[in-house]
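ok trying again, last paste got cut off:
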Amino acid sequence: MRFATIALGLTALLGCFLVATLSGEPIAVRYGQGSSHGFLALKTLDGMTIATGESTQVVSRGKVTSRLIFRFKDGSVDDDTTVFTQQGVFRLISDHHIQHGPSFPKPIDFFIDMASGDLTFKAEDGTVSKEHMDLPPDVSNGLPPNLLLNILPTTPETKVAYIAPGKKARLIHLSIRPMGTLPFRVGAFRRKATDFTLHVELGGVAGVVAPMIGKQPSDYHIWLQNGDPPAFVREEGPLYEGGPIWRMEQISPSFR
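nice, full thing came through this time. structure:
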C-alpha cells in the first residue's frame, strides 16, 4: 500500500531554496508495489484528526499509478498522483501535486513530466508557466515512501534528487538516514520501528544562511517496522513551508 507521500510535506517546504545538488542512482527494487486501496488520517501531534486520506495504487502494463488525496475538515485538499515504473529500479514517469484551501497559505499545482523534462506550474490566478530542466534519473517526487520500503535499515545514508516546485523550479537532493528505533505495540505484541529521517541538504550559501534565519526545512520522519517486507508504522512532518508538524497514520473503516 502506498501509505503516504513525502511530496505532501516537501513540495511547498522546499520551493524557496536554490541549491547545488548531487544526483544519485535510482533505488533498486526489493519489494515491488502492487494494486491497493487504503485509508489514512492526518492528525496534530496531540491526536486531533484534521483530515482523512484515501490512497489508491493501480498496476497496469508495467506502470504503477499511485494517488493520495487528503480532504480536510476546513475544506482544504492535498492531492498527489504519481506514476512510476519498477523494472529493476524505481523510475518516476510523472508527478502531479495540488494543494489548496485554508490549510495551505501558498496553494500549488505542479506537474513533472520526466520524459520531456517539462515542469508546469499553475498559479492561484490561473496563470500557467512552463520550463524545461535536464532531470536526473533518480528524481523522487511522490516516491520516498515506496523507496524507503526498499532501503535496508543498515544503509548509513541514501541520497535522492527532488524537484522543489514554483514558477522557477529548483533541483535539490534529500539525505535519507536510519536514526535509531522506536518501540510500539500491535495489540499485545511489542515491536520496534526504524526511524528514517529525511533531511533537506541546502548546499552553498543557502546551507549556511538558512539555519541562521530560521529557514532550514524541518526534517521529515517515517517509521517502518523491519521485516520481509517492512511495514509502515507512522509518518510525521510539515506539509508546507513553516507549517506545523502533522502525523499520518493508517486507519480502518468504521461501521458505527
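cool. The CA atoms of residues 141 and 217 lie 16 Å apart. Residues 7-249 form one domain.
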